[in-house]
Amino acid sequence: MLQLRTSQRTLRFNFPARTSRGALTEHVAHYLHLSDTAQSGVEGLGEAAPLAGLSPDHRPDFESTLEGFCREFNRRQLRELLPEEAASLVGPEWPALRFALETATLDLQHGGRRQLYNTAFGRGEAGIPVNGLVWMGDAAFMRQQIEKKLAEGYACLKLKIGSLDFETELALLREIRAVAGPEQLTLRVDANGAFSPEEALGKLEQLAAFQIHSIEQPIRAGNWAAMAAICRNSPVPVALDEELIGVTDPAQQQELLATVQPAFIILKPTLVGGLGASLEWMAAAQARGIAWWLTSALESNVGLNAVSQLAGAYAAPGFPQGLGTGQLYHNNIGAPLHIRNGHLFYLPQESWETVE
Question: Which pTM does this prediction carry?
Fold first, then answer.
């Protein structure tokens, strides 16, 4: 008989994690523990960690909904649950919960070892290139992060922009390019919707001088016509991020991609509805010649590992993913995830911290 329980941990950032929506100092992660009475000592683990100000399910009733879901799940006395069936038990308005249940189900199916897919990454044989994330802050703080990431051997950096004055941000990009040209270092920027539609193209023209790989969400989500015009005319390829959140109907997803026609979409399973929903977005994008990459959404190492395992199974080899967030918290779940020379590795011979 399958049994489900929850636990939680309040994750504390090593520094205030600033975006254009404000600063985060802590983040509550909820965990689903899935076990089978027929398999003693084996437990599947998944993480539901909605983000304040961004996740559809970051609501006052999330915790009570989670507890109620576990009670109803256990009342059903299920004898089996396939990973592809898990999402059908959770409404699309609860994307983080869907992600957690899918992950826990997949983990239980594979022996509760946090190896969700049989891949070179999951076996510890190959790493995944990741972008080094440079958080918003004053110029000195961002410069310090940039120097550290370059010294650590990253070949791709992503800068959060939109909180400093634009000239200061351009100056930081100029400094980076003085040290490393585009043949040595890929540069991505993430505006988190900070630009107005009227100013976006002018700013993108200035950013193009630094041979930027892409810009994430230059304007706020929800204005498809304005975003489509920017995508048509921008000298910097545009990636949709927040634009995907809450768009769960397949017909609406197709309409969004057809209308906006971005160069990239960015998939965060916690925000878009889990592993299966991410695969559906991938297929829809690829059918239109739109590339994608996966990004964590500030989960603990449990959620980060699930997104990384998905990337190890489906991401284009050599294409940097957004998986460099495991060092954000001083009380993260201990996990065999390591970054070396800008690549994330999973080492299955190492142990996980027990999540209670």
Answer: 0.95
